[in-house]
C-alpha cells in the first residue's frame, strides 16, 4: 500500500444501502457530513490496511456513523503510514495492549490470532469489540450476530455501561446464506439446508485479489501464472476451498456454515451440509441453497417474503433469464436472491431452491460489523 492512502467511497446503485436492520434506503444526495461528533463514541479499526479494514472505513463514512475520534491500528510493519479518511489525515499506529485506552468500539479484522490476543485485552479495558475473524464465533456467551437475523443475541450490550464485550461477525458465506434463508425459515422452519458456495478471491484477502488479477494477465500473455497464495492456478479455474480439510472430509469453511447456522438460529437440530468452492471472481460470493421445510411454502409466497426482507433484493426474471450475479452485487449492501423455485425432488411445497449473491467484503464482513456497531448506539 502506498504511504498515503485515500479511502474512496463507492456508489451502491441499483441497490441502495439499508439502515441497520430495517431495510430502509438511505438518502445519498447532497448529504451534509455528520460523522465527526463530539458526543459520538471513540472508535478503533484494527487491521486498517487490509481489504476489510479499508472497507470498514468506507462503510463508516457511507453510513455517517457518528464518532468523536478514530484510531487506525495495524501491525508494526504498517505503523507510520499515513491515511486520509473523511478529509482528515491519520497516522497508522502499531497495535499494542495499551491501544484501547478510552476506545468505546473496536472493529477487528486482522486475523484470528490477533483477535485472540488483543480482543480480550480490549474488552477488559471497557471496549466493545466487533470481531470479523473466527476467533470467538463459537465461544459460548459471545453473540454471533447478523443484525437482520438475530439482533436479540445482543440484548443487554450497549455503550455507556462501562462494560466491555466481545461480539462476533459470522463467516461471510454464512451471512450471505442466512440473509436469504432466514426469512423463509421464520415462515416455514428449515429442517435441512444444502449449500454450495462459489467464493470470490476477496475472502482470502487483498493479496489473493491482486494475484487473481496478475494471473489473469499472465495466462492471457502465455506466461506461467504466479501461484503464491493458493499454490495453484486460480485464473480461468476453480477448486475446492483452500481451508484445511478435517477428519470428516469437510473443510473448515464448510463446517463454519454448519455450526454458525445452528448457533445463529438457536437450533441445534437443523441439518446443514455444504460444499465450498473458490471461483475466479473478485469480491462477491454466490451460493446455491436448497431448503427443506417442516411446513409448506410455495415459491410465490417465498418471493413475497424475500421482497419484503430487510437487506435483500430479489432478481428473478425467468423470461429474460436474469438472476443474481457476483458483478451485480459487487460494492452493494444488499444480498440478491433469485432462481426461486420449488424443489421437484420433494413432494408438495416442502422444498425450495434459491441462488444468492452478496458482496463478501461489504455485507459479508465490513457492513455487517458496522451494523452491529450501530445497534450499540
Automatic annotation (TrEMBL):
Q: How does it assemble?
A: Homodimer.
- Could you say which protein family the record assigns here? Belongs to the aspartate-semialdehyde dehydrogenase family.
- Which controlled-vocabulary keywords does the entry list? Amino-acid biosynthesis, Diaminopimelate biosynthesis, Lysine biosynthesis, Methionine biosynthesis, NADP, Oxidoreductase, Threonine biosynthesis
Its UniProt pathway annotation is:
Amino-acid biosynthesis; L-methionine biosynthesis via de novo pathway; L-homoserine from L-aspartate: step 2/3; Amino-acid biosynthesis; L-threonine biosynthesis; L-threonine from L-aspartate: step 2/5
Gene3D superfamilies linked: Dihydrodipicolinate Reductase, domain 2, NAD(P)-binding Rossmann-like Domain
Query: What residues form the membrane-spanning segments?
Result: none
| Residues annotated as the enzyme's active site | 172, 285
**What molecular function terms (GO) are annotated for this protein?**
aspartate-semialdehyde dehydrogenase activity; NAD binding; NADP binding; protein dimerization activity
Q: Some GO term, biological process aspect, for this entry: which one?
A: methionine biosynthetic process
Semialdehyde dehydrogenase NAD-binding domain ranges (all copies): 42-157
What general EC class does the enzyme of this chain belong to? oxidoreductase
Task: Tell me what this protein is called.
Answer: aspartate-semialdehyde dehydrogenase
Enzyme Commission number: 1.2.1.11
Q: InterPro entries of this UniProt entry?
A: Asp_semialdehyde_DH (IPR012080), Asp_semialdehyde_DH_beta (IPR005986), NAD(P)-bd_dom_sf (IPR036291), Semialdehyde_DH_NAD-bd (IPR000534), Semialdhyde_DH_dimer_dom (IPR012280)
The UniProt entry, under Pfam families, shows: Semialdhyde_dh, Semialdhyde_dhC
Q: Enumerate the PANTHER family for this protein.
A: ASPARTATE-SEMIALDEHYDE DEHYDROGENASE (PTHR46278:SF2), DEHYDROGENASE, PUTATIVE-RELATED (PTHR46278)
Species assigned in the record: Corymbia citriodora subsp. variegata
**Which superkingdom, per the lineage?**
Eukaryota
Q: Which reaction does it catalyse?
A: L-aspartate 4-semialdehyde + phosphate + NADP(+) = 4-phospho-L-aspartate + NADPH + H(+)
